[in-house]
Specification:
Belongs to the RRF family. This protein is an alpha+beta fold. It is 58% helix and 16% strand.
Length: 186
């Protein structure tokens, strides 16, 4: 293994951390409706927990209403119950074959709580990125110890890893800032 492979591996893992952070941000609800809010809900599909997107079509009726159309008529009650029992505080209503999920307006207190949650998720993402930096630096030290790279190359590679870490941490900060602005906008 070379220093470039260690750096490339760390870079790929940092990109995955950012992607994971983005998907967790998508689950945090803002004043507007979007189908990503329901993505993590599991439906009891004939005894098996199944993601809602695999048993129903998700769509938007308007800026504050999500529509859920189960593909099988017997699943309507199961889908509605799963949405109601989720931690989102939503109250779905069935109209024929379509479940309408209105998004209630957020109170100021709830907006602040969501902003704190976004900051917490951001800190977790930054910790994950810094842990990847530490792993990469340990890998570089091991390569130096095994005499596969020189100390100068190790130092240059560690500087490169640090620059990449700073770039990803800055991206997390920007995502947090954008999401907070989105949440706090009434």
């Amino acid at each position: 293994m070379s220093s470039s492979e260690v750096i490339s591996n760390a870079d790929q893992k940092m990109v995955k951390s950012i992607d994971s952070f983005k998907s967790s941000l998508a689950k945090i609800r803002t004043g507007r409706a979007h189908t990503g809010i329901l993505e993590h809900i599991q439906i009891d599909y004939y005894g098996n927990p199944t993601p809602i997107s695999q048993v129903a079509a998700l769509g938007l009726a308007d800026a504050r209403t999500i529509t859920v159309t189960p593909w099988e008529k017997p699943m309507i009650q199961a889908v509605e119950k799963a949405i109601r029992d989720s931690d989102l505080g939503l109250n779905p209503a069935t109209q024929g074959n379509v479940i309408r999920v209105p998004m209630p307006a957020l109170t100021e207190e709830r907006r602040k709580d969501l902003a704190k949650l976004v900051k917490s998720e951001g800190e977790d993402a930054k910790i994950a990125i810094r842990n990847l930096r530490r792993e990469a630096n340990e890998g570089l030290k091991k390569l130096t110890k095994d005499k596969l790279i020189s100390e100068d190359e190790e130092r240059r590679s560690q500087d490169d890893v640090q620059k990449r870490t700073d770039k990803f941490v800055a991206e997390v900060d920007k995502l947090v800032q954008d999401k907070e602005k989105e949440i706090m906008t009434v």
